[in-house]
Amino acid sequence: MIMTAKEIINDFKENYGKVRKLLDEDSKNDLEHEPYLSKYKANEILSNMCDSLMNIRDTEANIERDKLDAMLGAILLNIGIIDMETEELTASEKILTRAEEILAPHSVKPEVVITLMNVYHNHGILWSYRDEPEKAKTFLLKAKELYETFKCTMQMPIPIENFINNPEGNVGDFMLMEKAYTLTLYYLAQVFGSLKENLKSGIYCHITLRRQLQYSDYEPIDWALNSASLSQFFAEQKGFTQSRHHLAAASTILDMYEEKLLAENEDEAHLARMETFKHRSADVARCWAKYYLLLLSASHDRLMNDAEQMTDAVTDLSHLTLEDDENICGGDIKMLKFPDLDVSKYESKATDKFLLTYQDAREVFLNCQSWLSKAKEYYTLETLASDYIKLVQDSSQSYTYLAFFEEDDERRSKMHKRRIDMLEALIKEINPTYYMQYCRQLWLELGEAYLDTLNIKLDRLNKCGENPTPHALKKINMLCEKSIEHYEHFLNSVKDKNGVLPKKLDHDLVKPVVSAYACIGRNSLKHIAVNKSEQLSHVKKSFDSYQAVVDICENNPDAATMMSEEYSLCSEMAKILVIKINKLESELVA
């Protein structure tokens, strides 16, 4: 007996409804020891539906072939997704390939296009799981091409749910296909990131965000975080114009969301949403602070170059060209903006140009401190210590850059003193047992801060050409000792209970350990000794530190390669200091 089209569709509708309930509702309540129970049940129903439709397909069914194949493709898509989610990747690949073969001949049919796009998406996800981004890209570009081809037909896409619920009316859903295409672009952004084509990945991320705004298809908190995260990528590429715009957009969306929150009744759900809002607003504030730090850093590096080598002053990525074999952006590299969003409130307060003067740097510094203070309203030492420590480190770093632009020695010294005060106050509050990683960073930074102050004092002393006063002498030696003290705190944290360094240092520790010893070596020679005996003591300490670097590099070829310049300098200094020690000892005996 041949089933009528209505009977086929009703049978599909009934069973498909059971499948969706199992996947969308029941699976959330599956027990821990049977995490895939509902998925397996759904798979069983889908397999039976597939067999039934394949039998009908091989007979003279009273239904159009493209509509039958649309239902069959939807079944196979769901089986493929379940196989993937239950870690049956080989089975998933076979099923998705079969779905593609059935649907591809009808690719521009309204009932088929969205399902086929989702088949291509899941092929892309599957090959990404297998760490084969090039293959994933192939399928995602097929989805992109399918969308563009279908749009040219001027038809209205019909989701499978609409088709089975109203087979006669054929109710289309333009938005569902647009959402599917936004997903295509999102997945391509991830794939290009895996392929290290970071600029293409960034452009795809931007287009995804722009489409979400265009179709009001976004969750405000997630959108703001994604836009702020993308801004960090642009800033790292020195595209400060694009970075500022994306941060301004993130803050604008958060402002709009806050207005809605404040109009709500204060029930438990509202309080939870408000807490999430405060948390994520603090994260966006941190991104603003990072923006300003990156701008200070890039401006510092640019000014440190020789005049002939000074890099271009452009801070806008729109001047770049991009190899676009996939026709991914269609000129979007020159339009990385959100045209329907007014972000002037935030853009007008933030420069996107390289800094040249102290006044330029001070304005950026103050903005950076303002955003850090906002972030500290949420991230405190008592509640979220790790994040708070990073905020204090960012604040210290901003003082370092500001000091670079300051020409007055006294004011520069005060800036480094502010760094020292905030870092020493912080390290007294944190327990090395739980926060050793951060304590090590702080010890190194304090050693550097004292060294920066010391160098300012010594430069001033050399400029005036006079003997130091007792007060100046005491200050210089104190700075020397404090710098060495913090470097030694760091080194002691790496040594064992007997005060011995590991024979082989962890890769991440090689550079800081070698640098710490080298700094101690240099600082020891900066001590101003009042007699030869004291001078000998400092020279010996310097020799021991330089020799420690030599020993580390001789015992560890990787360290010697990684720190070749320091190794060479320390080796040379150790040889020179042996001669100096012998000379001082001879003079003392004489």
Task: Write up this protein.
The protein has 590 residues and is an all-alpha fold. Helices cover 74% and strands 0% of the residues. Among the domains are: 1-196, Tetratricopeptide repeat domain (Serine Threonine Protein Phosphatase 5, Tetratricopeptide repeat, Alpha Horseshoe); 377-494, no CATH class; 511-590. It is elongated. The termini are far apart. The model has no long low-confidence stretch (mean pLDDT 91).
Give the fraction of residues assigned to helices: over 70%
Radius of gyration, in Å, reads 32 Å
Please report the first level of CATH classification, the CATH class of the domain at 1-196. Mainly Alpha
Order of helices and strands: HHHHHHHHHHHHHHHHHHHHHH
- Report low-confidence residues grouped into runs of 5 or more: none
- Proportion of beta-strand residues: under 5%
How are the elements arranged and paired?
Elements: H1 5-24, H2 37-57, H3 65-85, H4 89-103, H5 113-129, H6 133-152, H7 160-165, H8 174-194, H9 198-214, H10 220-236, H11 240-262, H12 268-304, H13 344-347, H14 358-376, H15 385-405, H16 409-429, H17 432-464, H18 470-494, H19 507-526, H20 532-555, H21 557-562, H22 564-589
